[in-house]
Amino acid sequence: MPRVNVKYKFVKDAFIDFIKLIEFQGKKADFQNDYIGDNQYEGKVENVSVMDQIEIEIEVAGVTDAECTLEASIVKIRKTGTNDDGSPKYSEVGETKQIVGLPIHLKVLNNSIYYVKKHTIKWV
After folding, report:
1. Sheet of 112-120, strands arranged across
2. Which domain holds residue 106?
3. Counted domains in the chain
């Protein structure tokens, strides 16, 4: 099963009170530390196992439906050695797949707003 790094940019609108979760294929983004200002978050989720689809899950809190935008670059990685502590070292190799400017309409459900979708990524 291929492994990838996911670099993402998430832009939320003012109707979203706060983010509860951003996940790629079940691996959580550290969005608290990825805040860059003006309702934007940029970060990287490393060493995610995927096949030909990547599941993106977003959960936010708010009282009304909201709009947001997600961009993601999905880059294949490969084990290229070991770190000093003996853990595997991975490097980005090969092609990059893009999810560009994906508009997301989030619907309120019990004061939480969810988005879960699988996106197809084809490797050649």
Report:
1. 27-28, 16-24, 53-62, 112-120, 88-109, 66-82, 3-12, 40-49, 35-37
2. 3-120
3. 1
